[in-house]
Design a protein that fits this description.
heterodimer, A: 749 residues, alpha+beta, Aldehyde Oxidoreductase, domain 4, seven-stranded mixed beta sheet, five-stranded mixed beta sheet, 31% helix, globular, disordered N terminus, B: 165 residues, Ubiquitin-like (UB roll), DNA polymerase, domain 1, 2 domains, 5 helices, 5 strands, 30% helix, disordered C terminus
Amino acid sequence: MNEIAKPAQRSRAAKWSRRGFIGAGVLAGGTLLIGVAVRPGNPVGKLGSLVAGGQGEQLINSWLKIDADNIVTAIVPHCEMGQGAHSVLAQMLADELDADWSLVRVMQAPADGSYVVTDTIRGFVAQGTLGAPDWLEPTWNGLFTRIGRLADGMITGGSSSVRTTGQHTMRIAGAAARQMLVGAAARAWGVPAAEITTAGSVLSHKASGRSAPYARFAAAAAEEDMPQTPALKAPGDYRLMGTDAPRTDIPAKVNGTASFGIDAVVTGQTMTYAAVRRAPVPGTRVAKMDASAAKAMPGVLQILNMGDFLAVVADSYWQAQQALNAITAEYTAPESSIRSSQDQFARFSAALDEAGEAGGKEVIALGDAKGAMAGAARKISADYQVPYLAHAPLEPMNATVWVRDGKCEIWTSTQVPLMARSAAAKALDISADDVTMHHPLLGGGFGRRLEVDYVIMAARIGQATGYPVKMIWSREEDTQKGLFRCADMSRFTGGLDARGRLVAYNNVFTQRNDPADACDCAFYDIPNKSIRVAEAELHLPFAAFRSVDHSQQAFFIESFIDEAAQAAGRDPLEFRLAMLGQSPRHKAVLEKAAAMAGWSTRPAAGRGRGIALTESFGTIVAEVVEVDMSSGKPRATNVWCAADPGFAMNPDGFRNQMEGGIVFGLTAALYGEISLRDGAVEQGNFHDYKLLRMDECPAIAVEIINGKHEKLGGAGEPGLPPVAPALANAIFAATAKRIRALPISKHFA
Amino acid sequence: MMKLTINGKVTAVDVDPAMPILWVVREKLGLTGTKFGCGMALCGACTVHLDGRPVRSCSTPIAEAEGKAITTIEGVAGPEGELSKVQQAWISEQVPQCGYCQSGQIMAATALLRDNPSPSDADIDAAMAGNLCRCGTYVRIRRAIKVAAGLEPAKGAPQTGSAQA
């Protein structure tokens, strides 16, 4: 704008620009730094059309709206994949808003740059900037919002929703909206705002006896100035936070009405379905195909050779898959010389050999590891290894697309809707603005749906058809052709002093992704450390897996600590406790798990107990596993889990995540293995890629240590890491057999 | 045309008799509560009832359903949407995480309790071992079945939660 606005206009423009600065970011101390007002006629009114619902709704800001029936809808930017983020983020907003939980609904925020999760991006990109000084916050928020938009940062991962978006956005949005409602009521009633109280979605003024539901002042509230510093509740004032508020998404999940990506229907259009087959070895392509038999099969509409994959489009998915099965194909020769799992582990082993005791890239160097090792009274060493793993969410990869007139509409389960949008746009050579995303509930994510490979494939199929098509991967495609938790190998040497203390710690492994500190057990007081990574080629493409590096590192580290305890002739619990003098919270968690398990009592004959302690995604977790070896094969009978997340916003939801992480981790520990033959994945379906079943599931007890800390830990991932080492350690306790390679079941075949 | 009875309603579909029940109910009848997980009767996500017996709809041809009553997850609640005891227990015990397998879990549990109103832990394990849950809600499923059977009290979470908008 070049012309100078008149004073009245200028003041209004200033107000708009403040409100229009999208990307609400807030400080734990309670300062609202950036608010977004969205309502009809607003300069950022584009959002209004994206999140609008029924008549009489009033958007108070971009994170919540209130309708005429006094229903509050929290607009949640994270995806719901079972972790309960939708519900708990709404719970946090509703508490600050003093809303009646039974009148709260949740809406998935649309895939739009306005809903980048600024604080999650901050958590990923620049750890430690959350909780920065007040004066710095606006700069940080502006910066990370911009980064977030550039990076399509609408991400659900890293066990981060509650501790970033929940703490720094949803609570502020609720508190700001509450203050605006109070302001509007105060004006209308002609009373001081300070005299108005709020509870259960109702405003009250005691002295005059007036009260009104929020809905009555929703429109007026939207005209109030967005408070820049809404006060947040102190823990003593929480009404919903810290309670087991029932999850909003569960009712629809018990009657068949919950809608997942695979359930997409393009309204008013005839649906078609695509089955796909990728080349079996990463990097290879279709060299030749014979589809003559498939062409003649009923329902077949199109057969596509896309180079890197084949697709059959038909009237039904079953017909498409039948026809695909009838296609024979040959593929180009793989370039990688890794043909088998043995080849893969030989690469790892060679990299570790080459690195020796000092080579590779240094990750942690503490004290004098070399000197301490030389002076150690006793040395131990051990190699551990883990195989590739498939994520295997029960909803296979799928996406529905409709490409027409230079535009594309996509329906898919994804943890990264904006990245999916950009990837599809790039594949189709159109603008991301011409791609509309619909991203309903996820039938499991676990990191797999941080990747967009399947969305790109569907977009390319849709481009070829021009009509709506739903691509669904078979379970075999999903198990064999996607991206994987890496295989890895880790080598340790430890030095014990004359008193049996672990004084030297030397470790080198080959795969390092995320989080950066997953390879260290910093909470243990080990004075001299050398931790290094000696990178080695991976044959299969990598995708983050629930708890990422912790999923293998915890097994390596806590198995080795157990071996050190054994070498020192100490009880595994006592050995660990002796190293936790500087880590009182970790010590308390470990003691709690041990007490729950009755560690000091002897297990029944044929049984053993193992223990492990980890910290991941800000949450400290200790688990004790009891294993029954009386049949000759391991059966986990009990898991006792103690966890300190700082504060659990929804304790029951947190426990559910610990339980889930434990089962997920037991599957990986006992059965999980993706192996290679001729460069391709050998496993195909749940008969040879086994998941833990009900009759193998142990009794699980979870206790939360709720210290009411301001800094919160995550929930989705931290339950997983300790369970594999605790189980392996339990097997050692019962049998004196040390498991150094997963999966465990292979040792008892 | 094939005449089918689904959730108490008679309907006719024109499909290949070899097509699995799963794809008929999902694609032709729009009942998407029944899920595709493996296609080989290994995961149980597709479980429906045929004359009250649980079957894996991904591996059962629609021809086998002719003349029988098919019940899907959409037909478990009463005519006014009143939830069954199993569904209520699934809410009170806050069982689902992602929820994708839960239609199949509820169909399996419903069939179990019809045959065996007071199942032991071993009965539950045996009846439910065919239904995978990747999120790992087994502990809660076990408890919810006992709650539905009246063997354990409900945890007391209100039955009237908020719904998804």
